[in-house]
Design brief:
Elements (H helix, E strand, L loop, with lengths): L10 H4 L8 H5 L7 H9 L6 E5 L2 E4 H17 L7 E5 L4 H12 L3 E4 L6 H11 L3 E5 H7 L10 E5 L7 H10 L11 E3 H6 L16 E6 L9 E5 H12 L9 E4 L6 H12 L3 E4 L8 H7 L2 E6 L1 H7 L15 E4 L6 H13 L7 E4 L9 E2 L12 E2 L4 E5 L13 E6 L6 E2 L3 H7 E3 L5 E11 L5 E6 L4 E4 L5 E4 L1 H9 L4 E11 L3 E10 L7 H14 L8 E5 L12 H9 L2
Helix pairs in contact: 4-5, 10-11
Length: 575
């Protein structure tokens, strides 16, 4: 009888990355209940602990919970109930926090948007979800006050960034920002007027609903039309649990929220910090030159940031020798981080007392924000780490979608409790990015190209939508990864950042063109461009060498701080 051989199990079956997690982490149950309930369960017995640091003022958990309750009553008083969608256009302020938890408490859905998106985009975001109620800060109101009639909004609640300051500090702020004064009456309520409406309003008990829709956030739209991403309580709670898993989190550790809350990356960090009883530093208007000062003053343990902020931190001239001694985790995400910057940041951290080095990860809004993370035991240069402990990952063929073995390059896909519910009112787009396998498991197709090594460590090599198709003289078509060219160019000392795009070419289908931003001390010259091309010629295959180097003063970026590839393409093509 012929002996049967057992085929090698695929990475999504073997899950080799679990070797980096303890049995306790693997067995830990997923959180239940809503984000509001997790806040109450973990903090109601610690009313005197600090919840928020805000512009020199401390707010305790007891005070925060009381204001959330009052805010929930006020929303109830103006008719907001379970399933209603309220648009929130706020920076990182205490009022944003109160409103987010209050809406979650009553089962409403938060449509979180960029507070400075502009009139046209803000109107579109409001109308897309038919919000009757909009909470905005004074800066948003300044450009929306004459446009609210174009939206479905019946009531606008306007809060000043100075609302939580002392009366004297608030008065000084208002004098400096006269144009942001809020008129009273009509369909506009000041924050004080709004909160007063809840004085005599009873509240029903919270409903435990982990699967309820909690937040609608929006994709950056860098490779297509921006879409509303619907995430549930469980999406945010489970990702938050996985982000801090095994990182030694303790009550009253410090977390700094740098990124604006309309990004899931930031919003998840915020919910996670409060769930675990951290002291959370809210920064409504970020000054990168103060990052080291913030970390030392507030004894920050957890910081999630982006490459642009890290590059700015490298420019700080005077840093206390022990400025980074409190750090337990510092993570870069949002877009690829070049090796030069990573090494420079690690040198800066180490020389100023940090016990940890920079970690990385990858994710997307549709994954609630995160899919992988590095840890001290698997922080390999060039990688984005391993899948989170409750997250599964596979690499699939871009031709027919079958799962690939370790080391083979394909599209990176994730499954688990952090995969979004779907795009708002757009089942067609949802079906394009989420597929369901024969076992009923939903897989999110990221559009990232990469591979996984035998230990389950993920490496990204490009984006499907950014691949440049090129044909050689013999008619052979190749796929060029712009990221590989960008990595090569980024090693040139004079380059601050770069972006490679494909430009239509009748003979070659497309040709790679590099757009480069230089460091401030450098000036553009034909010789410098020639040097960059020559360097590429020595490190890249000939067909990948860019045909042209275009030097610009400032790289175009999206509202989320990422390089705007579409804007670069339009700039180069002249569209």
């Amino acid at each position: 009888m012929e002996q049967q051989t057992t085929p090698t199990a695929l990475p999504s079956v073997e899950r080799p990355w679990l070797k980096y997690y303890s049995e306790q982490q693997i067995a830990e149950p997923l959180p239940t209940g809503s984000l509001y309930e997790l806040l109450i369960e973990n903090n109601s017995n610690h009313p005197d602990d600090i919840a928020i640091h805000y512009l020199g003022k401390n707010i305790t958990y007891g005070e925060m919970i009381n204001r959330i309750e009052q805010c929930a009553k006020a929303f109830t008083a103006i008719g907001v109930g379970r399933g209603d969608i309220v648009t929130v256009a706020m920076p990182n302020t205490p009022e944003m926090v109160y409103a987010s938890y209050a809406l979650n408490r009553i089962g409403a859905i938060i449509n979180i948007i960029h507070p400075l998106a502009g009139e046209e985009e803000t109107c579109r975001y409001i109308n897309e979800v038919e919000s009757r109620i909009v909470l905005m800060f004074t800066g948003t109101y300044a450009f929306m006050k004459n446009a609210l009639h174009k939206t479905t909004a019946l009531t606008a609640i306007v809060a000043s960034p100075a609302q939580s300051l002392s009366p004297v500090a608030r008065a000084i702020y208002n004098l400096k920002n006269i144009r942001h004064r809020i008129p009273s009456g009509g369909n506009t309520l000041t924050w004080q007027q709004f909160m007063a409406l809840g004085n005599d309003t009873p509240l029903p008990a919270p409903c435990r609903a982990p699967g309820d829709h909690a937040v609608i956030s929006h994709t950056g739209g860098t490779t297509g039309t921006a879409k509303g991403v619907v995430c549930t309580n469980l999406n945010f709670a489970s990702l938050g649990q996985q982000m801090l898993s095994g990182r030694g989190s303790r009550r009253q550790d410090g977390t700094m929220i740098l990124l604006p809350p309309f990004i899931n990356y930031s919003y998840t960090t915020l919910f996670d910090a409060f769930t675990h009883g951290h002291r959370t530093l809210l920064i409504p208007q970020y000054n990168p030159m103060l990052m080291a000062h913030y970390i030392r003053k507030y004894r920050i343990a957890y910081l999630l940031t982006i490459p642009a902020y890290l590059k700015a931190m490298l420019k700080i001239k005077h840093i206390h020798p022990q400025a980074f001694a409190s750090l337990k985790t510092i993570v870069s995400g949002g877009e690829p981080l070049d090796e030069h910057t990573e090494n420079a940041i690690n040198r800066q951290l180490t020389s100023h007392g940090s016990p940890v080095v920079l970690e990385k990860g990858t994710g997307m809004t549709e994954l609630t924000s995160g899919g992988t993370a590095t840890y001290p035991s698997c922080n390999i240069k060039g990688s984005v780490g391993v899948p989170y402990v409750k997250t599964n990952c596979k690499i699939v063929s871009t031709d027919d979608g079958h799962e690939l073995s370790s080391g083979q390059e394909g599209e990176v896909c994730f499954s688990g409790t952090t995969v979004m519910w779907g795009y708002y009112n757009n089942p067609e787009a949802t079906a394009e990015i989420i597929t369901t396998d024969s076992d009923g498991i939903r897989w999110l197709h990221t559009g990232d190209i990469g591979y996984m090594n035998e230990d389950g460590v993920v490496f990204l090599t490009g984006r499907m939508k950014r691949l440049i198709m090129q044909k050689d003289a013999g008619g052979m078509v190749s796929k060029i990864s712009p990221e590989r060219i960008e990595q090569a160019i980024s090693k040139y000392p004079a380059v601050a950042t770069c972006c490679v795009v494909g430009i239509a070419d009748t003979a070659r289908i497309a040709r790679p063109v590099a757009v480069v931003e230089l460091i401030k001390s450098q000036t553009a010259s034909p010789h410098l461009k020639e040097e960059i091309i020559n360097m590429c010629a020595t490190t890249l295959p000939q067909y990948m060498v860019p045909t042209e180097i275009i030097i610009i003063e400032t790289m175009p970026r999206t509202s989320r701080g990422k390089i705007d590839y579409r804007a670069v393409e339009q700039m180069v093509s002249g569209e």
